[in-house]
Amino acid sequence: MIEVENLVKRYGNHLAVDHLTFQVEPGKIYGFLGPNGAGKSTTMNILTGYIAATEGSVKINGYDILKDADEAKKCIGYLPEIPPLYQDMTVREYLIFVAALKKISKTKFKEQMNEIMELTMISDIQDRLIKNLSKGYKQRVGLAQAVLGYPDVIILDEPTVGLDPKQIIEIRELIKKLGEKHTVILSSHILSEVQAICDEIMIISKGKLVACDTPEGLTGWMANSTQLELVVLGSEEKAEGVLKELEGIQAVHFENSSEKDCVKAILQTDSKKDIRPELFYALAKADLPIMSLCRGEKSLEDVFLELTGEDAQVKEGGENHDSDL
Q1: Alpha carbon of 115 to those of 99, 112, 148, 227, 286: distances in Å?
Q2: How far, in Å, CA of 93 to CA of 128, rounded?
Q3: Which of 112, 53, 36 is nearest to 77 (CA)?
Q4: Is 319 left (phi over 0), alpha (psi -120 to 50) or beta?
Q5: pLDDT at residue 221, rounded to an integer
Q6: Is the dihedral of CA 187, 192, 197, 198 positive or negative?
Q7: Class of domain 225-296 (CATH, top level)
Q8: What is the per-residue pLDDT across 269-307, written as a single tens digit (0 to 9) for each?
Q9: Could you tell me if 36 and 17 are in contact, meaning their C-beta atoms sit under 8 angstroms apart?
């Protein structure tokens, strides 16, 4: 379906995409993740033929995006982060205009028009000026233009950005429907959204592909360890002495506790062995009462932070909550 090989994009001395290679199979929804400046949008723009690569090749259904641009672009529908809408046109006028740009015959356009408006739920606003529509409806019109011509591949760059919760849910459902008949590549900074929608997830960092797997497969990468958060009544020195004697603990990190005369320990343990019973009896024997014990599960966010190195930046910088994931 899509073959990307050794893709490179340079802007002067800045390397935006660094020898990127991957394949996209038909009939799946792919999530495309990465922090700010990772090269996501640049890669998408190259896939759609909007900008040229410095090196490497992109093939869509066997057509080279540079050498066979017209044929390759017929296979792609694209919705950039800011929908390419003409504000003074009505919705219907705009879709007729897009159909002409895509060289869709009048017969095929008439067949598709009502279907696509029903699919994107814009039939009732087709005679309204685009400039008078809400952001959610404008996003739907943008999706409609991407679907026109029924391309094999639909590429969506941040399709839910700026929408309210109700609109986000509606767009997610629409993307799932598109995934039934099209291959979809979805860029988003909302990890829960990607996890809920996508069959495969690609993570890019500093222009390189660092992971490509199912959501379950990615979280399984870190399943070899479990995190326990423990608060005991007693000194750090005494607690450390007990914990060192227990098997299955891979690492221990102590922190100050908000509770008086208590110490907090973060334990990384072997996921194949539940050490909590042994931990309870060992600490009780040492006269170190357990005040609280929590078990943490690894999430897609944990995988993302580890693979992209963003966890270190968050810890060192203190505030990095608004990263474009």
Answers
A1: 14, 5, 10, 50, 71
A2: 10
A3: 112
A4: beta
A5: 63
A6: positive
A7: alpha beta
A8: 877 788 999 999 999 999 999 999 998 766 777 778 877
A9: no
For 187, half-sphere exposure in the C-beta direction (CA atoms, 13 angstrom radius) is 23
Indicate the pairing of strand 183-187 with strand 29-33: parallel
CB atoms within 10 A of CB 222: 18
Neighbours of 70 (CB within 10 A): 9
Which of the residues in the chain have pLDDT under 50? Answer: 312-325
Q: Report domain extents, the chain.
A: 2-218, 225-296
CATH class for domain 2-218? alpha beta
User: What is the rounded CA–CA span in Å between residue 267 and residue 254?
Assistant: 9
User: CA 91, CA 222: separation in Å to the nearest integer?
Assistant: 47
Which residues are registered as beta bridge partners of 4? 22, 58
Neighbouring CB atoms inside 10 A of 139's CB total 26
Determine whether 14 is exposed, middle or buried from the number of CB atoms within 10 Å of its CB (0-12, 13-18, 19+). Answer: exposed
pLDDT in tens, 100-124: 999 998 888 888 999 999 999 999 9
Tokens 């993570």, residue located: 203
Q: Which two tokens stand for residue 100?
A: 């002409």
What SS3 string covers the chain?
A: CEEEEEEEEEECCEEEEEEEEEEECCCCEEEEECCCCCCHHHHHHHHCCCCCCCEEEEEECCEECCCCHHHHHHCEEEECCCCCCCCCCEHHHHHHHHHHHCCCCHHHHHHHHHHHHHHCCCHHHCCCEHHHCCHHHHHHHHHHHHHCCCCCEEEEECCCCCCCHHHHHHHHHHHHHHCCCCEEEEECCCHHHHHHHCCEEEEEECCEEEEEECHHHHHHCCCCEEEEEEEEECCHHHHHHHHHCCCCEEEEEEEECCCCCEEEEEEEEECCCCCHHHHHHHHHHCCCCEEEEEEECCCHHHHHHHHHCHHHHHHHHCCCCCCCC
